[in-house]
């Protein structure tokens, strides 16, 4: 089975010096040529505060208005009945049952909802050793639960994070429904083995995994593993795309998603590739004529790089993505030469 980046007649994926893997065109490409359609995400989350305003299938957002089609059993809303039908078909009946059980669970514990990402970290970022230990502890707790005579229920006073629960469940559903694509596409991504902002963040992910393991339909439980939950967080840390109103980077931040086929484009402060969200997929097109052998790059700064000075661009990229930008524009501005 092939395991790796997308295959195209127009580009190849290569190792790029000091930049990991990158996408290089194999022929001259005229401006506005569409080079990649990502397809739908392999996992995603719409943030809790927007779930009544964003279509669960196509991610349509009507400027804060509640969408017309609502499913009170799953907590999902849709811009049309057609999108509801498509979402149900895409998920499958077992997954729909799982979303119903998760919605019931979060509703019954609404007093204990937390959002670890909105809380300033009180601890440092956990090391790989601490991350491994945390997940091993979670697996031990799950094993004790499985071996117990009576299956315990989640503690009614335990904190829950609906956003983490939704992200993990979306990954579990994709893994269950599309195991081959998970193995060949998600596992091929570069992983971040220290993806958690704080010890509290790690603890809440482990707790969410255990909560899901106790409430999901029995046929879905075997797909609810620590490996699946860890993988989507580690893959998404540096590969996720923001879901924004209108599909533009500068718009309101509604959630994020993992698109493996779109995760091989490196950053440039003078990108030659333009991306736009079309429903639940991303479309990537040449922003100018691109010559054979050039690397295809997008911006990780949402268009703001156009008005930012070198030091500020590098600071933002270093803080968010952990690298020192050495793209052609940055090198020219610092008096250097060459292309990243």
UniProtKB/TrEMBL annotation:
Gene3D superfamilies the record matches: SET domain (2.170.270.10)
Annotated ranges, domain SET: 9-301
PROSITE patterns assigned to the protein according to its UniProt record, in alphabetical order: SET (PS50280)
Alphabetized CDD domains for the sequence: SET_SMYD
GO CC annotation: nucleus
Pfam families linked to this entry: SET
UniProt protein name: SET domain-containing protein
Organism: Teratosphaeria destructans
């Amino acid at each position: 089975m092939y395991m790796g980046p997308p295959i195209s007649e127009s580009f190849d994926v290569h190792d790029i010096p000091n930049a990991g893997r990158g996408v290089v065109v194999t022929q001259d490409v005229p401006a506005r040529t569409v080079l990649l359609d990502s397809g739908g995400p392999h996992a995603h989350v719409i943030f809790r505060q927007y779930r009544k305003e964003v279509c669960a299938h196509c991610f349509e957002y009507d400027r804060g208005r509640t969408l017309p089609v609502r499913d009170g059993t799953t907590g999902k809303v849709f811009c049309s009945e057609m999108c509801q039908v498509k979402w149900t078909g895409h998920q499958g009946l077992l997954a729909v049952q799982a979303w119903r059980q998760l919605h019931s669970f979060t509703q019954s514990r609404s007093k204990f909802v937390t959002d670890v990402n909105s809380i300033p970290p009180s601890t440092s970022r956990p090391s790989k050793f601490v991350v491994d230990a945390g997940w091993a502890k979670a697996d031990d707790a799950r094993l004790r639960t499985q071996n117990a005579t009576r299956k315990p229920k989640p503690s009614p006073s335990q904190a829950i994070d609906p956003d983490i629960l939704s992200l993990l469940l979306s990954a579990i559903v994709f893994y269950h429904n599309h195991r081959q694509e998970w193995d060949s596409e998600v596992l091929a991504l570069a992983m971040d083995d220290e993806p958690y902002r704080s010890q509290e963040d790690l603890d809440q992910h482990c707790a969410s995994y255990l909560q899901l393991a106790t409430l999901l339909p029995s046929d879905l439980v075997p797909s609810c593993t620590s490996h699946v939950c860890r993988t989507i967080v580690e893959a998404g840390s540096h590969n996720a795309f923001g879901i924004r109103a209108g599909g533009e980077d500068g718009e309101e931040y509604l959630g994020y998603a993992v698109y493996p086929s779109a995760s091989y484009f490196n950053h440039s402060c003078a990108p030659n590739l333009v991306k736009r969200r079309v429903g639940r997929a991303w479309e990537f097109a040449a922003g100018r004529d691109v010559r054979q052998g050039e690397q295809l790059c997008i911006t990780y700064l949402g268009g703001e790089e156009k008005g930012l000075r070198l030091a500020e661009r590098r600071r933002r990229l270093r803080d968010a993505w952990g690298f020192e930008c050495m793209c052609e524009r940055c090198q020219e501005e610092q008096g250097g030469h060459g292309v990243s």
